[in-house]
Design brief:
about 85% helix, single chain, 2 helices, mainly alpha
Length: about 60
C-alpha cells in the first residue's frame, strides 16, 4: 500500500470519527431540548443515541 493510500484512509477514518463526535453533540442538544418540552421518552431516545455515538467514537483512536 502506498503512502498516499494510507493517508487517504487515515483522512476518511478521521472524518468518520469527527462525524460520530458531531452526531453525539447534536443528539445531546436535541435531548436537552426535548427535556425542556417535557417529552421525556424522546429525550431518552436522543440521549441513548448520543451515548452510543460516544461509545463508537471512544473506540476509534484519533489518527495522531
Amino acid at each position: 500500500m502506498t503512502l498516499e493510500k494510507v493517508q487517504e484512509k487515515l483522512a476518511r477514518w478521521e472524518a468518520y470519527r469527527q462525524e460520530m463526535l458531531e452526531l453525539e453533540g447534536r443528539q445531546a442538544e436535541t435531548a436537552a431540548d426535548f427535556l425542556e418540552l417535557g417529552a421525556y421518552s424522546d429525550a431518552a431516545r436522543c440521549a441513548i443515541m448520543a451515548e452510543g455515538m460516544r461509545f463508537v467514537a471512544g473506540r476509534m483512536p484519533p489518527k495522531d
